Amino acid sequence: MTYGNSTGTGTGALPALRTVRQRLDAALDATARAWLHTALNDAADRTAIAASWELRFAEAGRRTGDDHADAARLLLLHAARADTATLTALYNQGTAAERRAVLLALPHLVAGPDAVPLVEDALRANDTRLVAAAVGPYAATHLPAHPWRHAVLKCLFTGVPVDTVARLTDRARGDQQLARMLGDFADERTAAGRPVPDDLHRVLALTNGRADPHGKES
Question: Is the alpha carbon torsion for 61, 38, 15, 165 positive or negative?
Answer without folding.
Answer: negative
